[in-house]
Design brief:
single chain; 3 helices; alpha+beta; binds guanosine-5'-monophosphate; five-stranded antiparallel sheet
């Protein structure tokens, strides 16, 4: 699947659409999910143009992958969920109901979570 530079997260990265920013560095941007499914529900996206985890892990450089992982950790720390615990989730493709075709990791926490996050 080719990257669509008009997807909503690409627009957020370009500053065309606002977001509630939590963290940013050269590799990643983190912001609150517009429709939170948990007390803490924050999205972390790489700055590069990758459709999904599969695309990112195939094509991104080691520096981008490492930087992204560190940004996820930093975001969780800023959200105050490191000690209480959190869940990471990344939807790839149709069967996972991926909605936005720019790779993103969901950080969910801030309360006891159900067994899995179900999308309704
Ligand atoms: P996916 O199903 O692709 O893994 O999840 C996409 C997530 O992006 C959803 O949880 C949805 O609420 C969130 N989302 C969609 N559009 C926007 C937006 O414009 N701003 C923010 N902050 N989150 C969005």
């Amino acid at each position: 699947m080719a990257y669509d530079s008009n997807n909503i997260f690409a627009k957020i990265l370009r500053g065309e659409i606002p977001c509630n920013k939590v963290y940013e560095d050269e590799f990643a941007l983190a912001f609150r999910d517009i429709n939170p499914q948990a007390a803490v529900h924050t999205l972390v996206i790489p700055k590069g143009a990758y459709v999904s985890f599969d695309d990112f892990s195939t094509k991104a450089t080691d520096a981008e992958i490492g930087g992204f992982a560190r940004a996820v950790q930093a975001t969780a720390a800023l959200e105050g969920v490191t000690d209480s615990g959190y869940r990471l989730l990344a939807n790839h493709g149709k069967d996972a109901n991926q909605e936005v075709p720019h790779f993103h990791v969901h950080i969910a926490g801030g309360e006891a979570l159900p067994e899995m996050i179900a999308k309704t």
